[in-house]
Write a structure and sequence with these properties.
acyltransferase, Peroxisomal Thiolase, Chain A, domain 1, 15 strands, EC 2.3.1.179, transferase, 422 residues
Length: 422
Amino acid sequence: MSYTDKFGRPLVAVTGMGVVTSLGQGKRDNWAALTGGRSGIRSIKRFPVDHLATTIAGLVDFLPESEQGATALTLALAELAAEEAIDESGLSLSNFGGPLFLAAPPVELDWRNRLALYARSERSGDWRSLIETARKTANRAYFDEGQFANIANRLADKYGTRGLPVTLSTACASGATAIQLGIEAIRRGECDRALAIGADGSATAEALIRFSLLSALSTQNERPEKASKPFSKDRDGFVLAEGSAALVLEPLESARSRGAKVLAIMRGCGEKADDFHRTRSKPDGSPAAGAVRAALADAGMAEEEVAYINAHGTSTPENDKMEHLSLSTVFGERMRTIPISSNKSMIGHTLSAAGAVEAVFSIMTMREGVIPPTINYDNPDPAIDLDVVPNVKREADVPTVLSNSFGFGGQNTCLVMAREPG
């Protein structure tokens, strides 16, 4: 068989995957909960929520690092996902030998460390004094915590990745963008393996306040597990969440030659910027539609070859309407019959990690022949005519998946995946 696609590029295989969400650690626990229609969204107990409009989130509270701040938790989540993925691939955990692409949230000092830094600074109101204080040996941890590349550097040291690691932040599309960078590096012949990770442990009080000011979060706090309801008429916002996912990518020829188990083929990736507004999408949905079309073109696939769509499906009034419009523009009347479901109905929105988490779930959908449901679909929106796989999983033959990631700032990235060719 051919190890190249119709454009003459190496076919890119996935040989290892790892995932952590509020549903649990590892693919097995996550898949059981996901296909069982269980929610990981709960009332927040980690920090005070007095006077906050939103008091729910999909937190990863079963790790000790959850009490140590966003940076420590993001690193821990990335490590857990990476170790599961590399272990499954059969490659070395300490000498991976390929580049690392990390999608991570913009880094800030946790508040407890900010206050400690202010207390130690000679002139607490002067930023130069704060930086100088942070650079001192006794406070080196504060300085490192505030560096955007710090998490990726530590991962690179631990797993022996090759070259300088790349840290990126393209909002809610970040996880998909990390995968895209790995795919493209392999296609260009720059490496024979790549590690793509999306990780986000930044569900903090400050994040809740910021997204609340944008009117982006659900305020349906009374029943947390029912708050995220993509494509429903009574949806009122997304639910902030934490999580991580990692994929090991390598040329199909290399994977087969070393006897690795091939989990899926990354057929295509596409991106399209939207400059309409900092948080709102262009009303006609054309940039999102453009990203979908670009991914299909990159995969060399026609629209009718898509068997299932893993929706961005955030549960905000704006996004769900735009996603329906953009997909209907691409797929026409067929969009009424293509199954499309949103994992965010159960895990919430993991922000920087979302594209990677949903890529893992998309591949598991193909491998297991089961489509996870969109839960909380009790009040359909008549303006959004989609087969959302409502409330209950569905057994189905799924040879191909389109996974959408549409981010704030107009950053849209779509991935096309397929089962291993015979």
